[in-house]
Write the structure tokens for this entry.
Amino acid sequence: MGADVQFPAMTDGREIIKKSTLDGQGLKILVEAGLTWLKANQQLVNSLNVFPVPDGDTGTNMVLTMQAAYGEIVQSTESNIGKMAHAIAHGALMGARGNSGVILSQLWRGFARALDNLPEMNGETLINALTECKNTAYKGVVRPVEGTILTVAKDVAAAADKFRGKDVTLDVLEAIVVEAERSVENTPNLLPILKQAGVVDSGGKGLFIILEGMLRFIKGMPLETTAVVQPLSQMELDGAMEEVEPGQDYEVVVDFRPNNNLDLEKFYSDLSDMGTSIQVGEGDGMYRMHIHVPTDKRYEPIEYTMGLGTVTKVAIENLLAQMEDQKGKSDEKINFTPIEAGQIAVIAVSPGMGLSRIFASLGVAAVVEGGQTMNPSTEEIIHSFENLPTDRVILLPNNKNIILAAQNAAQMTVKKVAVIPTKTVPQGLNAMLRHDPDGDLAELASEMESAISEVETGEITTATRSVEINGVDVQQGEVIALLNGALVASAKDIQSACMELLKKADTADRERITLFYGENYSRQEVNKLSDEIRKVYPRHEIELHEGGQPHYQLILSIE
Amino acid sequence: MNDSNQMGNIFISHRAIASIAHQAALGSYGVVGLAAKSLVEGFAQVLVKDPTLGVEVDFANDGITIDLFIVIEYGTRIKSVASSVADTVRYQVEKTLGLPVKSVNVHVRGLRISNLD
């Protein structure tokens, strides 16, 4: 970043503030500074975007809008600040992208109108201009939502207004930036959706960054660094695990209170000589520094920070040991088949850990937890395949109540999604046996659909109420057997229910019976049961698997 | 539009969806009002403060189609405002109903001029 932006050699930002007024060329340089700093922080702003539509593009939209504004004036030698402001407003209007971009262009429009045709701007005109910015921006909407960029513009105007008549110079900008930051931090208190997501408003943050960029330039601070201090509460150190580079074996975290004002740029550059994965957080004057360093340098960051202030807490951890721990754990985790770009990914809804593992071993790309009485939402289903590197997806709902949600998910995404209407887990497993990741989506879908009818599904569960269905009388607490979703038998215990079920099923034409036992049924019991089944059906192959599903003691697949 | 579950059916009317869309559109930046599709309809709707003014909802062919008739603030970039309002309305309706919206058509009925530059 920054290579494409070149400040004229003669301009040191600090020269600007010494003068009491700003002309067109001065404004041009400030716009450039704001844009440069916004670009450096573009991804940060994108990551905050949850309102009004969480599509993560606020930072990009604001950069493009500012870029268009700057593009309009980059060749201009105009010294009249009013004319320059009108050109900026015109550029911003033409290039406005997204909500935040449109609001930003309105702010510039108000700014230009206030400066009208003035040759230069002083403190007083700046205050007027900020008020006009706010007024113009608020005119653009009938029902302004507070806790957004609009609120930040309003707070900034109000803060500037306090200096009215006090014979201020342009250093009022310092107070403006301070207020903008406070206002941004306050946005979650005004807009609940931000609080829920644990972020500040993205557009407001973007506006603050533009203003801050201007101030940084005036103070002679660099604009291309990413040395940003985040609030302590937002520091995420858990995720740092994946970023371990070879040789950086130790993680060092130091909490400290600096004696003097901390020179962040120097702090960052000194740290980067020692190690990698540097993060700095700040809260209430306390700083937390996080770094990964090689074994022989593990005490260096601590001694270095001791020279800067009072160290209150130090944590050193051997990452190699941690990594091994992590590896041990991931063995317990399910290993899904990685999907290559363009392949067909299958997503299965699975009610239990054991069944998920079986689906994974058959090659599904992901599972969504869900089943009887715990239907996943359309959003959860979409979320499961959204980030896969392919646009061809097959969904196995494996429950008749989830088919609709799966179909909704298929319609709501831009990816090509086929829903196989599997009503039970065995149907889903059987369909999965036909999977061919490189096949044709429509062909594979019809192939899988035909596999559904080749398996019969038995389910054993406990009745939650007394009822009579299909001529079967059931008392609450009795064990019931369902064959392909229909109630076929009730009994006092699981074994007799299971035998009754197999009797009703079309076992003569089938060769294999697979039992998936649930979380409320033990391995010993199922072993005993399978011995009984073997006695009655000696010619059938009997298989046992841990399904881990709730509610159902047994799910049987008869194929 | 209806949606069935184990217990029965859920019916959602055009007007209910139109109200959600109307509210979402009014909160979207750059939109300063909604306009009636026709003059006669306009009089009637203004008289009773219709919460669905300027919104048409259609369920044809298995998907929700929403038409918005809006007035935009003069001096904003119309294309950006229109696509923002379409995005916002689509997102709010889908989030509230949990059903997909097939398309949102935006008809810019006029501009309101607050200030001439």
